[in-house]
Amino acid sequence: MTRSKTTPEEALLYHFEPTPGKYEIVASKPMATQRDLSLAYSPGVAVPVLAIAERPETAYDYTVKGNMVAVVSNGTAILGLGNLGALAGKPVMEGKAVLFKRFADVNAIDIELNTEDPDEIIKAVHLMSCTFGGINLEDIKAPECFIIESRLKEICDIPVFHDDQHGTAVICAAGMINALEITGKKIEDCRIVLNGAGAAGIACLELLKSMGARHENCIMCDTKGVIWQGRPDGMNQWKSAHAVKTDLRTLEEAMVGADVFLGVSAKGAVTPEMVRSMAENPVIFAMANPDPEITPEEAHAVRADAIVATGRSDYPNQVNNVLGFPYLFRGALDIHARAINDEMKIACARALAALARQDVPDEVAMAYGRKLSFGRDYIIPTPFDPRLIYTIPPAVAKAGMDTGVARRPIIDMKAYEAGLKARMDPTATLLQGIHARARQAQARMIFAEGDDPRVLRAAVAWQRSGLGKALVVGRDQDVKDKLESVGLGDAVRELEIVNAGNSRHLDAYKDFLYQRLQRQGHDREDIHRLAARDRHVFASLMLAHGHGDGLVTGATRKSAHVLNLINTVFDASATAGAVGVTALLHKGRIVLIADTLVHEWPDEEDLATIATKAAGVAQNLGLEPRVAFVSFSTFGYPVSERATKMHRACSVLEKRGVSFEFDGEMTVDVALNMQRMAAYPFCRLTGPANILVVPARHSASISVKLMQEMAGATVIGPILTGVTKPIQICSTGATVNDILNMAVMAACKVG
Ligand SMILES: NC(=O)C1=CN([C@@H]2O[C@H](COP(=O)(O)OP(=O)(O)OC[C@H]3O[C@@H](n4cnc5c(N)ncnc54)[C@H](OP(=O)(O)O)[C@@H]3O)[C@@H](O)[C@H]2O)C=CC1
Ligand SMILES: CC(=O)C(=O)O
Ligand SMILES: [Mg+2]
């Protein structure tokens, strides 16, 4: 598995750009006209007000309550970093809010309460609880968290769930069910050592005990060592409940012969010697964040027979509450639950454990760069598993319904599962899929414009995200200076800087170029200038000679200029069949537009070729292509010379006998909106088009830029296709992320 490394600078930039923080609030209703305002606010809003006053449960129908969770913290136990205060906890709580959205389409908002007084927190949360469908308490330290949660559960009529306690316990239990199955041990017989007697620790041990672990077999430790019966220091009632009669005093002593270690304490709390002293086939869940009690490398170095899990995404077996809270709340919200009870938690743990035993879809395996099958390195599903959203919430909802906490039971479970699948944003899945493929390809990516800080940042990100090797074309000192200027000075050692001065291949490149251009008016001197001084040409020559696997350029010069230079080395022209395809990602939809780069005024034959190439890109992205030839007329009306070629392109494709769906000509609304398409029952498209072949380059540019500027669509491309090697040309306005996405396209050979 490739480790992904990020630097502190990248982490800060991620949080800073393009706007500070990680989320924003978007209106879900039109808010443009006088009528909209009258409905949204006064006077229209008075009607739901009266309805809710009369029947409070209708708040679930007329407000965001039913899909809204508050992530509440006072910052007293931020990850494993300790008590850093309410405000410092905000990035974590915002992070949790976006994970709720990303993984389960739950709207969440972070609320930081600047107090350590449990009564104040209880009062504040209780007072605001009517606003929400659920409360996720987070990173509140023990023992106050126990008091706060239990009191709030008594007085609130919505789920109140301290995730560090129960989320962690649920995931830990799911992993433990599978780890013990693999080692053939029974939980009743296991000697369990838990380090960290706080929120997470006490809840984990309680759940394992409810699953059969025996009290006398479980040793709990904290900063003062073993919690033994009668210990006078650092105790509280929650720790006392787990104190055992024992002569053991230190974690080191407790670990001797232990079958299971659970760590929810702090970085580095466990030594290799402790692991060495454990029983055969030890199970080690080192769950402290961001750094575990012991790393898997260290544990495996002394005990090859260990099953090791951590809380991190960059190691196998991520035992992290991110696998639970989005789905627990999704299931609870969907039944308008009054609580998340033990049965719902256990149903979640069982469903997670069961999912890990099933065959893993390819896209999930690819995201992790290795085959995932149930075993020592795969005891728990991975957070990017797309099956989580439609397997875990139904199990939780059903358990809630069976135990009477549902205000609104789900009648049709099958329809519910289908609805859950539809909730997930396909654009996120698409990007995740191609990034996963790129990671597997491990391409040597040539970044031609090593004098541009954005390109350099993308190259560093390429390398550090484990996507492959970054080859940067540029002058050594210049690259170094520019890296320094963006705070990435140390990355210079990781990148390979290539230029005509340090390349052993310059003569071979020049010979190759001379062969291609000698009959096009270029003499040897021109060739030298092109090969040695133009980075687009030099980079293309590297690619042509196999000295890199893909090429990204275009961030500093207009794409037409760059394409001309690439054409000196490759046949990337309209006549050679090259096509530019741009992907627009917006509101959960993906639409490809073509040709956005190469053909200026295509005729019907060209249009048919463009459609075929775009269909290839769509298939490569995992989409079933449906092509619409678009114009300002639909199926021959109004009649126009400009629209006729779009119509004729269909006939060309018919003759060519292609296997994908296509039709036209039609207007964009007919192409994208099934209700509008229904007016033409003979239309051969079985769903909304996902490829729009436009009449000419200007209409392509206008549509893409309009969507980008007016609608805020995410634009990927133009993806260059129809060239023998993977080359991608980004736009001059490209951000670091855009450049990275283009490199990913090149690595996946999407074009
Ligand atoms: N992987 C996951 O999903 C999750 C991981 N965690 C991790 O668990 C850890 C604890 O979080 P949480 O329970 O919320 O925090 P709490 O503050 O509630 O509890 C921390 C506990 O850990 C103990 N502790 C701290 N350092 C050490 C040490 N070096 N050796 C032994 N015990 C130690 C404390 O001991 P004392 O009582 O003596 O002060 C306390 O009992 C964090 O690292 C957090 O990141 C938490 C939730 C989820
Ligand atoms: C994951 C988590 O909630 C924690 O480390 O606190
Ligand atoms: Mg936490």
UniProtKB/TrEMBL annotation:
For the ligand (NADP(+)), the binding residues are: 78-85
Q: Which cofactor does it need?
A: Mg(2+); Mn(2+)
For this UniProt record, the keywords arranged alphabetically read as follows: Metal-binding, Multifunctional enzyme, NADP, Oxidoreductase
What is the active site of this protein? 96 (proton acceptor)
Q: What SUPFAM superfamilies does the annotation carry?
A: Aminoacid dehydrogenase-like, N-terminal domain, Isocitrate/Isopropylmalate dehydrogenase-like, NAD(P)-binding Rossmann-fold domains
Q: Which domain of life is it from?
A: Bacteria
Domain Malic enzyme NAD-binding per the UniProt entry, residue ranges: 165-401
Which Gene3D superfamilies does the protein's record reference? 3.40.50.10950, Isocitrate/Isopropylmalate dehydrogenase-like, Malic enzyme, N-terminal domain, NAD(P)-binding Rossmann-like Domain
- What is this enzyme's class at the first EC digit? oxidoreductase
Annotated a divalent metal cation binding lies at 138-139, 164, 289
User: Which EC number(s) does the record attach to this protein?
Assistant: 1.1.1.40
Pfam families from the entry? malic, Malic_M, PTA_PTB
Q: Which GO terms describe its molecular function?
A: acyltransferase activity; malate dehydrogenase (decarboxylating) (NADP+) activity; metal ion binding; NAD binding
Name all Malic enzyme N-terminal domain ranges: 20-153
**Which biological processes are named by the entry's GO terms?**
malate metabolic process
What family name appears in the similarity comment?
In the C-terminal section; belongs to the phosphate acetyltransferase and butyryltransferase family. In the N-terminal section; belongs to the malic enzymes family.
Name under which the protein is recorded: NADP-dependent malic enzyme
Q: Which organism is it from?
A: Fuscovulum blasticum DSM 2131
